[in-house]
Structures are given as C-alpha cells and as structure tokens.
Amino acid sequence: MRKNPRLENAFAYIVIILVSVVTAVNYYVFVLSNAFAPSGVNGIATMIQYLCGISVSYMSLLINLPLACFAFFLIGREFTVKTMLYVLSFSGFLLLFQNHVIDIDRFVYHTEDGKSTILAPVAAGAINGVIYGLCVRCGGTTGGTDFIAAYVHKIRPDISFSKALFTFNTAVALSSYFVYGCNVEPVILSILYTFLTSNISGSIIRGGESAIKIELITDRPEELKAELIRKLHHSVTILHATGGFTGKDRVMMICVINPHQIKDFMEIISAYHNTFACVSDVTKTIGNFKRKV
Hints:
- This protein is α+β, with helices and mostly antiparallel strands.
- It is elongated and about 75 Å long.
- It has a four-stranded antiparallel sheet, covered by helices on one side.
- It contains ten helices and four strands; from the N terminus they run ααααααααβαββαβ.
- Helix content is 59%, strand content 10%.
- α1 packs parallel to α4 and α1 runs antiparallel to α5 (119-137).
- It folds into two domains: 5-206, no CATH class; 211-282, Alpha-Beta Plaits (2-Layer Sandwich).
C-alpha cells in the first residue's frame, strides 16, 4: 500500500504541535521552578529569566526568529518551517501557563520543598529526549542551537551535527555555574539533563531499526553457515578472502542479526575453534530483514 505524502506531512505537523505543548508543560513543571539550565537556546533563555525576569517564551522567540530567517535560505525551507512551528507553539503555550490562562500550578515541582534535587532534570531530560526524537523523525528540530549546528555541519561536513550540538550545550552548562551563584550543582544537573535528552532522543531517532553485523573467518564455513541459518533464521553472505599474514585462501562470512540474538550467536561459535568474529553495531537496516525471530 502506497503512503500518501500529504497525509504524512500533515501528521508530522500535528505531532510537532502536540510535542511543543508537552515541552511547555515540561518547562513550566520541572525546569523554570528549579535552579538549573537545560541545553541549547532555551537554556540561555532560562538563565536570562532567572537573572532578569524576562520570560523564556519571549527570549526563545527573540533568539530563534533571526536564526530561522538565516536557516530558511541556507539550510532548508521545510526543516525551518517545521522547527519554527514548534518554537511558536512552545512559546505560546508557555505564555498561557505563565500568565495562568491555563492553570497547571498544582503540578509544579519545587526542590525547595525538600524534594529530590535530581528528579527535576531527570524527568525534564527524559521527556525532552522523547520530544526531540519525535521532532527529528518528523523532519524538524526544537530550534535554537540546532539551527547553528545544522549550518556548521553543512559548511563543514567533517564536523558532525551531534558534535557541534554537544559543543554548544557544553558551553551553556558551564555558563550556568556563574549564573546560579558560582555553584557547581546546576552545572551537573544541566549535564545530566543533556545526557538523558541525547541518549533517549538518539534511541527514538534510530527507532527499532538497529541490528548487529558479524564478520567471521572460519575453517568450517558450510557447517557454521547451516547452523546460523537454522538457529538464528538469518542468512549469511560468503566472501572469498586471503590471509594477510599466511597468504592462504580463507572464507569470510557476513551475517546481520537482531541485538537480542547475540547470546545465541556466542553459543553457536563457541563450538567452532579457529573461528574469528568481529561484531559491530548497525544503526539502521533497510529492506528484507526479519525482526520477529
């Protein structure tokens, strides 16, 4: 069944609006009432609100609008439109919460009440990780430093998007030391928030499409091939290779399996002496690959 691009695009915009609302709730409940700065531009906006009282909503718009104009022409139109839809929705709903048009004050988490200091960044980072992953899968981002990181990666492909983003987020975390009374705790909380966001969003962006690739050198290729296919239900690719040290002709086998099958694989090759295996992670598989085995 062919997918309808218009319906998919409309669904992506709806998801972006919904996750922006969740982000606004996340900030109002877990971030703004506790002394730490999240990652990216909103982390800068949070620190400005803490110092000057200017709402994160206004600062987020003020910083993101010029970056969006820049990105619209130099990075990509659809990427920019989706990202700015997220930014506008986030700022709008956060304003509604801050002005008590929508009252969610009873859910706000205050660490000053004797509650755990670490729970706020853990909850906020985990929620933001899910949000960021969904935004990226829908073709946008959460704005701010993502615009800058995307542009840096475009002009310098050798610098990965994640590396540029990590650099900016680290700068935000370190600057929070001076904002929150030269205290190291906000820095640690900010790093924890960023770590959780990065790992959870990465898992969502990759989805359930990861696998494990195994490259084998063995003296008993036919027996091993038959057992791998029979027990793991994945085929193998056989290549002819030459040993660099001995100069002898050898057989190399390549097999891609599901992550949960690695234990079964280890049990299989333990019976084959003089077998060498190299195992590596595969972030995505495309095409005919069985997952429910």
